[in-house]
Write a structure and sequence with these properties.
- It is built from two helices and no strands.
- With 85 residues, the protein is mostly helical.
- The two termini are 18 Å apart.
- α1 packs parallel to α2.
- The protein has a domain of 40 residues.
Length: 85
């Protein structure tokens, strides 16, 4: 199965990071989402061509001291939960 996912805008409120952390966080989100989709896929309803105008993902709770990559992985798991449930 081929999955095409385009995230136009991702809003993150309350992160302790600046612009220099955006690229590592984005890379971690992309890598983890690719892994999760390859392993778990999506719901049968989303296997057909489908567009979500908005997805509200579950809150994430990274551990104190986690860097942008760890946050990115947590964000990806939350997003995947929203599209795979």
């Amino acid at each position: 199965m081929k999955i095409h996912l385009h995230i136009e805008r991702l809003v993150l409120d309350g992160t302790p990071f600046g612009n220099r952390d955006a690229q590592p966080m984005q890379a971690a989100i992309e890598t983890e989402l690719q892994r999760l989709l390859a392993v778990h896929g999506v719901t049968p309803g989303l296997q057909r061509a489908h567009q979500l105008d908005r997805l509200s993902a579950a809150p994430i709770r990274p551990a104190a001291g986690d860097g942008p990559r760890a946050w990115g992985r947590s964000i990806a798991r939350s997003l995947h939960g929203g599209i795979a449930s």
